[in-house]
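G., the chain you wanted modeled:
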Amino acid sequence: MTSKVQDLKEFLAGTGPVALVEVAGTRGSTPREKGAYMLVSPIATYGTIGGGQLEYMTIDKARQMSGVLPSRKGMQPATVHRIDVQEVCATLDVPLGPEIGQCCGGRVEVLIRLVDGAMAADLIATAQAEEEHLPHLYIFGGGHVGKALAASVSLLPLHVVVVETRAEELEGITEAVETRLTAMPEEMVRQAPAGSAFAVLTHDHALDFLIAAEALKRSDTAYVGMIGSKTKKATFRNWFLKTASGSEAEFERLVSPIGGDAVKDKRPPVIAALAASEMMTALVQHQVKVGAEVA
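Predicted structure as tokens:
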């Protein structure tokens, strides 16, 4: 599994100075929220503050501050007001209107600072803390749909784990997610942190039933989904209620088929795209609900 924290460390350790470009304030409609940031080196960038001309202008300014790009006439429209400029810090106040080729209509205050050792350590520590608290998504099954789903969710702010009983099916899984080989996948359900999402799509219906039953018996999950048809869902319901000691209320939390049935397309990448949206929505809604309960 490749870690976003490791990617950040490698970027900060790259050749040349690095500037931190951070959204310090917003008014009206803007592409990113306060606190969003990106890093700019002489040859690359890491992260985004929303793209478009706003991002191009701040990248240019960051490289000017780093001493790797001379100031170029015309790169900073009159509508961009430099509030403060020092040797290692600058603040830009940018209206997002037609003057710079953007139509968001809001205004963004951008803080640009050259990154020193202390700032780099703070960025890494913050990234590590965020990574430790990412919602977990467990994908049971590394077949065609499992691989497609893992690829679809690998760029999302999630900790993704693909669980398999067959070693060969873990080959070809994107390196951006964690993989687990186990003879007892249902044990992974028991070990998962509260608020996790579970996507059940193994090669064996009996195994699907066992894993889904374990997940449904937990009351703290954000999402439990099982791939399959209406017939498979009905068969599972009968088994779950009569043999697995499940309740109707628990069964009602099952999402099956995953990804919904509005789009009649069974190709793995299509199922994966629809399911990824469904699961991310459920995870965000669960976090909001838990946050409201805590407050």
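The first helix runs from residue 4 to 12.

Shout if anything looks off.
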